[in-house]
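Researcher: Structure prediction, please.
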Amino acid sequence: MIHAKCIDAKVRLALYGMLEYSAMKLFPRRMKKVSIKLHLKHYDYEGEAMIEEGTSTHRPRSFKIVIDPYRMERDEWGRELNYSEWVSKLLKTVGHEMVHIKQYIMGELTFPKGAYMAWKGQKIGWMTEDEYYSSPHEVEAYGKEKWLQLGFITVWNEIESREGNKLQIL
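Model: Predicted structure follows.
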């Protein structure tokens, strides 16, 4: 389920496709038992994957991804992205957050006793920016986000060309 205002039908379809493609690549045997809600709205971060409220943190299967599309309008250097670049960045961020959902599903990223976050049993504390980017759960997510994005775009463009459509957003 995608909760978003002012997103055109083709982008919405691409977001659904990216969710499905990522699930198929990251946790194919478990994807039918997993529920993921995607919310596009103003948020404190570009994106965050979380266990859905009211869901057990032990073997969770219901998740929410929140992405702030407004934070995606510019690149790291402050340059305004064109529409195609913006959609591409949205898809890459979905891929990144789907890696975190895989980590929750596989029990790699956990909340022991609900008190703190842990990666493979090791407590994750508050981090500096350096510690954040070098933490194992983020290294995996940043490493696989581009792989998922490029794989999905290849499939999407192949379908579009077969159907005779020229998708301008990817």
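Model: The chain has one domain: 2-163.
Researcher: Thanks, that helps.
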